[in-house]
């Protein structure tokens, strides 16, 4: 090189250095950490440069930053993603940040008034946030008459709305079946939430197994599918072990709907009886290209409220075979309760928190940490103290009285994986990548750039000590909410939110995860005529037999002939006065046990009376239906 050329190069290099072109100055520089990316398998000691909320460089070359983190001896991983966090108050978000969770969303309960919900949280949250539209809230509006206005119809205020729904003594959202008009009204509410940008539909059908008909659930999944969005649900019959209502039966319902609709599906906390069947079906479905998955949390106990149907004696004792004094723990009393105490709280404080132990989980957890695409979701509960009062951001962690899963579900997985020699990259996939991948495949573009540690990805990052990270929360009073340790730094959108194991107050970089608002909705009301036009051929007016046809012409009724005398058993069932049997939703009327088990029998002295009543069994009239069940005599029929 000529002297003049060399001098020019030196001048240009000096200028470039001065301008920060070669010696890049980043907003944040993470140095000397073990950088791990679950998508590509990258696993190397490297430096990470972050600018404007994004990872702009991963290199072994020296870098500098306005803020520098020495990650020596630590893993630099994608921020953990939790799709079932119910404690989304400032206290709950703070607690989960200490557990490494950068994206905290509630896909089970969800929200309504979606536009207001997002506006209320803009610029105010420390972690990324998003929501689905909640089926339960839609049912509360229709079946309980609740207005449900404002931006906070969601967790952590959920149990307040349940209490309001129960003030008249009936949980309408849970036990009332919708007629066609009501079903359409509920679906229209879901559609409006989707139009406003909700990420999908959230369902608590497991708590409304008597109220939500199979067709209403199909309609809910169908409207989500019309937008190309997911349905996330706590499925029906969870966690029953009794045939014919085994827990997998409820999962089958939702999975079938998802497959025929070509839609995405998430099942919540499939960590009880039948989980192996559900996971087998999930893996087979994914192998065929379906975007379906389920979640779990690594604790031997679940949490709910005393009024939950799954804890009632017919399920907890009769179906599951558990004893209250061995399995139902009250965090406020700091002890197990007797059956009498349970029943008392069920009546007087149905919203009170109960911790329910499931002994088989001791062994099952060892398997769950090894199941692909089985995603960790903490199912964290609202932050309350032992008096049931809401905790604030500054409240001590020791004041929390509830399930420890609210505090340590992610750190405990890292500990369990370490102790059981599970590859760390696999565990990181359970904590972040698989959730982001499935959500991205469900059309949520913001998740395509999360759950990975790569250049060009959002800088949601969790830094932890792989040898010492652990949960500290436990079931003991005063320890329910102890924060995890071994996770000293957490970044959300490139901003340090946890520094040296302390959550920084007033730092709110959380980003909204949301679909764009659409100008018009996509809902089309269901009706019989539409169904016939779609799913039958036109033969010039042929249609299914209707009850009104029978009412007009009863001469066509043919009664079975049998030798005299004969006795007929008839079960009487009250129907609502204004409802005939509905194509899409049978009104609350006939208990299935009465249909098949005939527990009540009326005996008539003469055949004429029995024939008259059997004819009435074929129609719906005067708010009564009769179920014909002749004795098994020669020449008779049994219906």
From TrEMBL:
Family matches, as SUPFAM superfamilies: Composite domain of metallo-dependent hydrolases (SSF51338), Metallo-dependent hydrolases (SSF51556)
Signal peptide: 1-18
Keywords: Signal
InterPro entries associated with the record: Metal-dep_hydrolase_composite, Metal_Hydrolase, Metallo-dep_Hydrolases_sf
Cell division recorded as keyword: no
Record's protein name: Aminoacylase
Species for this entry: Falsiruegeria litorea
Lineage, top ranks: Bacteria, Pseudomonadati, Pseudomonadota, Alphaproteobacteria, Rhodobacterales
């Amino acid at each position: 090189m000529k002297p003049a050329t060399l001098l020019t190069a030196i001048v240009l290099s000096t200028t470039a250095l001065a301008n920060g072109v070669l010696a890049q100055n980043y907003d944040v520089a993470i140095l000397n950490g073990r950088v791990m990316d679950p998508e590509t398998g990258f696993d190397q000691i490297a430096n990470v440069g972050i600018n404007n909320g994004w990872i702009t460089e991963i290199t072994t070359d020296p870098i500098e930053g306005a803020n520098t983190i020495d990650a020596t001896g630590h893993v630099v991983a994608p921020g953990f993603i939790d799709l079932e966090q119910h404690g989304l108050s400032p206290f709950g978000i703070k607690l989960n940040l200490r557990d490494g969770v950068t994206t905290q969303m509630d896909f089970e309960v969800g929200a309504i008034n979606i536009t207001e919900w997002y506006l209320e949280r803009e610029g105010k949250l420390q972690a990324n946030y998003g929501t689905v539209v909640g089926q339960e809230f839609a049912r509360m509006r229709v079946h309980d008459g609740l207005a449900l206005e404002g931006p906070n119809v969601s967790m952590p205020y959920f149990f307040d709305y349940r209490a309001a729904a129960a003030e008249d003594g009936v949980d309408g959202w849970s036990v009332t079946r919708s007629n066609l008009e009501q079903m359409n009204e509920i679906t229209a509410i879901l559609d409006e939430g989707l139009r406003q940008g909700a990420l999908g539909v959230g369902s608590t059908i497991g708590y409304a197994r008597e109220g939500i008909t199979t067709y209403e659930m199909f309609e809910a999944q169908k409207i989500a599918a019309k937008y190309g969005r997911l349905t996330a649900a706590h499925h029906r019959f969870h966690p029953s072990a009794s045939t014919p209502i085994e827990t997998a039966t409820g999962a089958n319902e939702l999975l079938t709907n998802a497959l025929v609709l070509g839609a995405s599906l998430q099942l919540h906390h499939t960590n009880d009886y039948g989980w192996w069947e559900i996971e087998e079906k999930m893996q087979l479905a994914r192998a065929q290209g379906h975007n379906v998955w389920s979640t779990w949390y690594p604790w031997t106990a679940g949490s709910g409220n005393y009024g939950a149907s799954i804890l009632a004696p017919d399920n907890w004792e009769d179906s599951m075979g558990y004893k209250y004094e061995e399995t139902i723990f009250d965090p406020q009393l700091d002890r197990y309760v007797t059956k009498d105490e349970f029943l008392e709280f069920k009546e007087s404080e149905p919203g009170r928190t109960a911790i329910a132990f499931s002994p088989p989980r001791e062994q099952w957890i060892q398997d769950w940490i090894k199941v692909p695409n089985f995603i960790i979701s903490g199912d964290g509960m609202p932050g309350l103290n032992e008096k049931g009062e809401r905790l604030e951001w500054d409240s001590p962690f020791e004041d929390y009285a509830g399930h420890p899963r609210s505090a340590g579900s992610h750190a405990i997985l890292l500990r369990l994986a370490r102790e059981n020699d599970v590859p760390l990259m696999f565990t990181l996939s359970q904590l972040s990548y698989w959730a982001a991948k499935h959500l991205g495949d469900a059309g949520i573009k913001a998740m395509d750039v999360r759950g990975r540690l790569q250049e060009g990805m959002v800088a949601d990052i969790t830094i932890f000590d792989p040898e010492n990270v652990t949960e500290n929360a436990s079931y003991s009073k005063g320890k329910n909410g102890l924060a995890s340790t071994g996770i000293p730094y957490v970044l959300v959108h490139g901003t340090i939110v946890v520094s040296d194991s302390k959550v920084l107050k007033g730092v709110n970089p959380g980003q909204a995860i949301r679909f764009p608002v659409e100008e018009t909705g996509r809902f089309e009301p269901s009706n019989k005529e539409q169904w016939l036009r779609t799913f039958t051929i036109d033969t010039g007016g042929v249609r299914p037999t209707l009850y009104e046809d029978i009412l007009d012409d009863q001469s066509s009724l043919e009664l079975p002939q049998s030798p005299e005398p004969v006795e007929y058993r008839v079960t009487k069932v009250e129907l609502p006065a204004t409802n005939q049997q509905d194509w899409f939703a049978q009104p609350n009327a006939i208990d299935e046990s009465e249909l098949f088990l005939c527990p009540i029998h009326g005996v008539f002295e003469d055949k004429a009376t029995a024939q008259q009543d059997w004819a009435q069994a074929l129609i719906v009239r005067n708010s009564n239906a009769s179920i014909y069940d002749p004795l098994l005599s020669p020449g008779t029929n049994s219906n």
